[in-house]
Amino acid sequence: MTSSPAHARSVSIIVPTLNEEENIAPLVSQIAACAVPFREILFVDDHSTDATRAEIRALEGSQPIRLIEQDDADLGLAGAIMSGARAAEGEILLVMDADLSHPPERIKDLLAPLFAGTADLVVGSRYVKGGSTPGWPIWRRLVSRAGAALAYPLTGLHDSMCGFFAIGRSRLLELAPQSSGFKIVFETIVRAGGTLRVREIPIAFRDRVRGKSKMSFNIAMRFLLRWVRAMFQQLVRGLYHREQARKPAISNVSIKPKIFRE
Q1: pTM for this one?
Q2: Residue 256 domain flag
Q3: Does the first or last residue of the chain, that is N or C, have fewer Cβ atoms within 10 Å of its Cβ?
Q4: What is the domain count for the chain?
Q5: Range of the domain at 119
Q6: What does the mean pLDDT of the chain come to?
């Protein structure tokens, strides 16, 4: 992918944070080392109780960084992403985690199809050829795989649960749920109804090295149950819309009553 001033002005990188003080500086350093053109890095912080915000502010003078302090609502990860999307100045949004599990060196590959106009949404996938989850415990792999497999019939995506993706800002704001939603990629694809050109690129999704993981077996199981419920709601909604679309065609058919003669 070739850099250009237009591309540099067009990309906003959104990074939700919650108690990630040890990862802020390494993440910004790795993004800068990739020589990826971007307009800004938007950190959306959700009630961090450590020095995360101080670490972000310390870097604002050396990098195009903005901090959004999400203190007035408990919207969670999806809500943080949408807060960043609404505040972003770039035309293209790239979303990634703060814990270095998403490889910054793959940012360029996520952006390339959008710059070339060959895709509307590009997702970093752990479950296409070349993707992997090194260091994950077996229970986490099983839960993640199960969720991805359940979502595949509705999305056609091998890894709609991954939070490492790039999309046009206007499309995300148009398609993402008005509420905080649950999983942005999943809900955006389903709401698009087949109108999005989607690509997956393989990534190695690494476990965090610094800081405390927010994932546990109990959290993962609650996550999977919510995921199943979200998919069931989407399926019911889709069946309802299809039934409603059929009604006018059925009502226009004239049915002549049978006449019985003795």
Answers
A1: 0.81
A2: no
A3: C
A4: 1
A5: 5-247
A6: 83
Considering just the CA atoms, what is the radius of gyration of the chain in Å?
A: 21
Give the strand pairing for 92-95 and 40-45: unpaired
Q: Quick check: is 96 in a domain?
A: yes
User: Which residue(s) pair with 198 in the sheet?
Assistant: 121
Residue 93 lies in a domain: yes
CA atoms of 52 and 44, how far apart (whole Å): 11
d(CA 242, CA 16): 36
Residue 258 lies in a domain: no
Give the CATH number for residue 45: 3.90.550.10
* pLDDT at 179 > cutoff 60: no
Q: Which of 75, 98, 89, 92 is nearest to 177 (CA)?
A: 75
Token look-up 């994932």 returns: 215
CA distances from 129 to 25, 149, 207 (A): 31, 15, 19
The residues that bridge with 122 in the sheet, in sequence order, are: 166, 199
**pLDDT reading at 47 higher than 60:** yes
Total Cβ atoms within 10 A of residue 87: 14
Q: Kindly state the percentage of the chain with pLDDT values over 70.
A: 75
Matching residue, tokens 């839960």: 143
